[in-house]
Amino acid sequence: MSAVADTHAQDHHHGPAKGMTRWLLTTNHKDIGSMYLIFSFAMFLLGGSMAMVIRAELFQPGLQIVEPEFFNQMTTMHGLIMVFGAVMPAFVGLANWMLPLMVGAPDMALPRMNNWSFWLLPAAFLMLVSTLFMQGGAPNFGWTFYAPLSTTYGPPSTTFFIFAVHIMGISSIMGAINVIATILNMRAPGMTLMKMPLFVWTWLITAFLLIAVMPVLAGVVTMMLMDINFGTSFFDAAGGGDPVLFQHVFWFFGHPEVYIMILPAFGVVSHIIPAFARKPLFGYASMVYAVGAIALLSFLVWAHHMFTVGIPIFGQLFFMYATMLIAVPTGVKVFNWVATMFRGSMTFETPMLFSVAFVILFTIGGFSGLMLAIAPADFQYHDTYFVVAHFHYVLVPGAIFGIFAAAYYWLPKWTGTMYDETLGKTHFWLSFVGMNLAFFPMHFLGLAGMPRRIPDYALQFADFNMVSSVGAFMFGATQLLFLFIVVKCVRGYGEKASAKPWEGAEGLEWTVPSPAPYHTFATPPDVK
Amino acid sequence: MANNQTYYVPEQSKWPIVATIGMFLLMYGVASIMVNNSQGEPTQASWFMFLAGALVMVYMLFGWFGSVIRESRAGLYSEQMDRSFRWGMAWFIFSEVMFFAAFFGALFYVRVFVVPWLGGEGDKGTSAMLWEGFQANWPLINTPNPEAYPPPDGIIGPWGLPLINTILLVTSSFTITVAHHALKEDNRKKVKIWLGATIVLALVFLGLQAEEYVHAYQDLNLTLQSGIYGSTFFMLTGFHGAHVILGTLILIVMMVRIQKGHFTGDNHFGFEAASWYWHFVDVVWLGLFVFVYVI
């Protein structure tokens, strides 16, 4: 590999601009990546504080802190903010930072559009959060906004929610187009598709999923908009429509969406486990094919979210078997991660701790997903806390732990400073314990029949709910420690990081200095 | 994969943030017009916000595309940049295809499942309880609840205006291709004639489509409110029409650029992208003609 040092060859390649204009007007993938990550963490705290309200209300049976209407707004906004504001932008931020470094490109393919993709997000969330202060309150129908709850019975602010979703969708589609153009067109000479790092592969497939399904989300909210404001009857049987139509279109978006939130984490973990096991990734090609298979299958399983609405028996069987099929490529991935660790000379720095926890806990979430996929059993679990436990197990120790692992792994590259290992490990263990305390009891609550999205519950559920709330508070408070750790790194307090601080790490990103110069790979390196 | 040439990374640009402000004002304005309307509150301020947003967006579009055109004509873009634009446009069109797929999917689901079920088919039987005597048929010229959704008196047959429109759009796909080939040969007079013909065909299409809508609303009582037939009909043809309007604007911009002497025989991706978009609009129409009008 050559030409790794920062080059000032071109006149316009200088350092960052001073002041606010640097951030407002930037076309630099590193600046934009940082903004995405900061925005995502801010949304994580906002959505998290809403979760704290939910858990505080559920600490004890009975209504004590908030009105039921407000509780519904909290569950809705918590879900929307975490999905669209925290997890997705965090992965786009990682993509912005790392893809050009990993493929040896000077920047993203379309740098100005990249900045627009970012800045649309604060606009969208300003609009979404402003609904909290509107007459009739914020959306209160759950993050899945099922019709007719959201159409006939939704608050007036639903129209603002719809336009906020449109803006998020535009942002995501442009971000995804940028990612695909960068990966397909900007790779350094010699980097063939099957030599691409797995984070690049998983993002390529994620971007494809985004472009395929975000427009479908735009379509379904447009149908809602028309039903609410212009008298159409897409979701009203009185006019020949069907509320179930909403669920079909929504989940055609929604199921690929959940893979959008996990595939980049698969990529991250596939970098970190080999680095700290000091062994090459086991089964690279099978990892790529497995991600592809998961993505394709994700288009064929949407109705497993709707077993109880009364779809024909053939449909139930088809979607049940198709869903179970996903366990095969997912199993390939888990097996490969374990095989990579097997007989490796492992060390457990913070990124590795998060990654190992990812493999174990995501697998638990995968297994509860398998249980939910069984149509007859799903009739029992549907809309109970078992579902809440399931998707929090794939999203918190899945997506979020993947993001934390990535942040610790690449922080030295971003900031030039090593994070505090003791604090990092403390963050991990408190998060690990807090998260399991919060979500594991929900399995039992759900199996015993506690319904989700209800601010009150029967006395028999009191103990587990209290444990769950304590765990949630612990997990929530711990995230302030993460903020402290990152700020410390950004401010430069800590050991200076070398270009390659992890001895087992592989990839082009470790060939540039730490912190990565403002412009890297102005001329692409050669990849052997 | 890249070869080792340098890739143009633009300087700082104000256009993304201008575009964000424009889009926020526009969308917030539209939403508050709708909400205030439904609650019987005044909408002047909302309209002002919407128009301000629209103006900012127009300013942004001229400015942003203007910079791209200037950079391109200054020779700052490499072949690799050209490929980025190609990938970008291709995937953008794919996203548009998926947007229409949502509405086509809704149409198919309604026709294959919902309406027969409402008519009592299978073991669903809901309509037998809710709307006794509802007869399922397609086109749905009776709705389960005619008070809430007054049914249309008739629908638009395929073999009148829609057939003419089909011929117009298919012809326009040919004319734009002829114009593209003429541009490749650097025969600019020929480009202007055939591109001009494409624009005329597009405008005639839009005029006929408007006439069809007036006919539907005034004579047939076929409206957005007349049940699921009207909903799917107007949403599919309406979104298609909106895309034709956008496509026509793009073609007009291409005409202006040709007049100004932009593009060369081997470097004219702007024109090619416009023609890709036009073909996409045409293909969507063929789907509409078959599934909305004929079948």
UniProtKB/TrEMBL annotation, chain A:
The chain crosses the membrane at residues 35-56, 76-97, 118-138, 158-186, 198-225, 245-269, 281-303, 309-332, 353-375, 387-411, 432-450, 470-490. Its EC number is 7.1.1.9. Pathway: Energy metabolism; oxidative phosphorylation. It is a multi-pass membrane protein. It is found in: Cell membrane; Membrane. The keyword Chaperone does not apply. One of its GO terms (molecular function) is cytochrome-c oxidase activity. It holds the Pfam family COX1. It catalyses: 4 Fe(II)-[cytochrome c] + O2 + 8 H(+)(in) = 4 Fe(III)-[cytochrome c] + 2 H2O + 4 H(+)(out). One of its GO terms (biological process) is electron transport coupled proton transport. It comes from the Bacteria. Keywords: Cell membrane, Copper, Electron transport, Heme, Iron, Membrane, Metal-binding, Respiratory chain, Translocase, Transmembrane, Transmembrane helix, Transport. InterPro entries: Cyt_c_oxase-like_su1_dom (IPR023616), Cyt_c_oxase-like_su1_sf (IPR036927), Cyt_C_Oxase_1 (IPR000883), Cyt_c_Oxase_su1_BS (IPR023615), Cyt_c_oxase_su1_dom (IPR033944), Cyt_c_oxidase_su1_bac (IPR014241). Residues 23-528 form the Cytochrome oxidase subunit I profile domain. Its main location: membrane. GO terms for cellular component: plasma membrane; respiratory chain complex IV. Belongs to the heme-copper respiratory oxidase family. PANTHER family: CYTOCHROME C OXIDASE SUBUNIT 1. Cytochrome c oxidase is the component of the respiratory chain that catalyzes the reduction of oxygen to water. Subunits 1-3 form the functional core of the enzyme complex. CO I is the catalytic subunit of the enzyme. Electrons originating in cytochrome c are transferred via the copper A center of subunit 2 and heme A of subunit 1 to the bimetallic center formed by heme A3 and copper B. This is Cytochrome c oxidase subunit 1. It comes from Marinobacter daqiaonensis.
Automatic annotation (TrEMBL), chain B:
It comes from the Bacteria. CDD domains: Cyt_c_Oxidase_III. It comes from Marinobacter daqiaonensis. Its EC number is 7.1.1.9. GO terms for molecular function: cytochrome-c oxidase activity. Keywords: Membrane, Translocase, Transmembrane, Transmembrane helix. Belongs to the cytochrome c oxidase subunit 3 family. It is found in: Cell membrane; Membrane. It is a multi-pass membrane protein. InterPro entries: Cyt_c/ubiquinol_Oxase_su3, Cyt_c_oxase_su3_dom, Cyt_c_oxidase-like_su3, Cyt_c_oxidase_su3-like_sf, Cyt_c_oxidase_su3_a-hlx. Residues 3-295 form the Heme-copper oxidase subunit III family profile domain. Pfam families: COX3. One of its GO terms (biological process) is aerobic electron transport chain. One of its GO terms (cellular component) is plasma membrane. This is cytochrome-c oxidase.
